[in-house]
Amino acid sequence: MSIRIKWFLANALVVLLLLGTLTLAMTVYSRDFIDQKIRENSRYSVSQLALNVDHLMQSYEQIMDYLYTNNNLQERLLAQYGSFPEAEQMYFETVDPVLQSVRGISQMTRLVFYTENPLFEFAGFVPIDEDVKRSDWYAAFRANPERVKIWWPPRQDAFRHQGNFRLTQRLNNLNEDAELYVTMDLDVRLFDNLIANENKRHRFIVTLPDGSVVLDSHRSETYGANLRDYDFADRIGQADAGSFRVRDGEDSDLLIYQTLVGRSSVRGMKVISLIPEDELIANANEIRRIAVLLLCGAVALSIALIYALSLGLTKRLTKLASAMRSVNTEQLKPMQGMKGNDEISALGRIFNGLIDRIDRLIKDVYQSEINRRELELRTKESELYALQTQINPHYLFNTLTAIRGSLLEKGDKENAETIKLLALSFRQVLGKSGQVIRLQEELETVDTYLRIQRFRFGERLSYEIAVPEAYRGYAVPRLALQTLVENAVVHALEQNENPTAIVIRAEEEAGGALRVTVADDGPGIPAAALAEIRRGLDEAAPTGEKHIGLRNIHQRLRHTFGPDYGLVLDSEAGAGTRVSMRLPGDRHGDGQGGKQDG
């Protein structure tokens, strides 16, 4: 098993155990937290419902209080009238406007006054007769004279075919013994609007102080129902608030209740809420499902990250091992892309440093060998130069002149001219001293050489020397341009049956350097061969016998003038060849600064 797999499995196992433990702990904590929050929210909902019930009932009690404190109304209702028209006039002037303003209240189905005055035969007035005296509300007021208002449980109205619950009020503000009462019947659906839509699944029960049920959201009718009829009544007891679990068969509910302790008319009313246990379980299950999804996502992400990290680490180790295996004396390349500050990156940097040091040592050895060979080459050049100086040019020139005279006597002017040019060529070559001469002198040698080649190739060779006088004083290595022209003759003219033109130009570059170009329209050089020649120019030592002349000129230019100068080759197959020498603009054939007139 590779180190990558071992490292990956170990980290994945650790992450899985940690995330699993964390998820389990968070699930248990979240479930308890959610259950506690649901209980708190449910208690808040019950408290809010109780407050709303209290405010709703208080709003209708305030209407009764308005009638109770309206002394002018009570005085007119308690007064004695001599005739019905007199009572009727009082009714329409005083009582009816008040009643009209009260009867338009929402959810109120009926408002009735009970009085002992027989002349009040108006709508909404009922005389207190024997039937009224036998009613529950009348008996309750008579049994407890101190009670001012009483709420009564819902009853079904036989005439209206709807359920009502009643609020009764004694109007005895002016006279404590007055037999004057008012009843207000309200629609039993009054409390339905107090239950929020999101709580429709919860069961709400509202009871009066005597236990009578005025609202049961899961029952369509509550007529005659009482709190003691429910199984959980004994567990509620007399406590003001509380909660406990209620089980009914397979169903289980959380019961929360609160008792109203405000005004005497509603003191003892209870608001009860039953929340299904399956809703709590559903929330817990949802938390568990989300936790599992988060666990799976976290595990997947962690495994992906661990894999990416293991791949990054082991990939660099593999790369380092591969680089170590591939090290040889011919390819000492440092590793690329070793980023970071960890131990693997440190090993990579140490390896790169080691490769750099080995490469420098090898280069030092090669450079020593190159210097040794260059010294040998210079020694040979010095010997050649010494040998050249030992040749007696006068003897050579006199001999060639004698041959030319003999040819002229015989009338062979063409060969005599050739001998003349040959003698001139030797004079130009052997008569100059030094490694650097003026471009003008080099051009004279080239011109003589090309004139000789004209005798050899005839019309197949044409040439042009287009070098302005201003550039002819520049310095050039001796016989450098001569060698380029010879290459053009050998490789362009001799290997081509078609006529060949050779052009020598000079132009100044933007930086002040002088470019001298030998161009031909011969067969050109293939791309692969051109690339090989270019690579050979910068080789420290020749690897073969080809293109030694070009390499020597390039190396002489760089050795004489610096690394920015040398040969530049351009060629295309079938489109000729252009070889250029880059010469410095501040170096001249006299060895002094400034230009030298040619």
TrEMBL record:
Its main location: membrane. Residues 584-598 have a biased composition (Basic and acidic residues). This is Sensor histidine kinase. It comes from Cohnella nanjingensis. It is found in: Cell membrane. One of its GO terms (molecular function) is phosphorelay sensor kinase activity. Pfam families: HATPase_c, His_kinase. It is a multi-pass membrane protein. GO terms for cellular component: plasma membrane. Residues 579-598 are annotated as: Disordered. The keyword Cell membrane applies. PROSITE patterns: HAMP. The keyword Cytoplasm does not apply. The chain crosses the membrane at residues 290-309. Residues 311-363 form the HAMP domain. InterPro entries: Bact_2-comp_sensor_kinase, HAMP_dom, HATPase_C_sf, HATPase_dom, Sig_transdc_His_kin_internal. Keywords: Cell membrane, Kinase, Membrane, Phosphoprotein, Transferase, Transmembrane, Transmembrane helix.
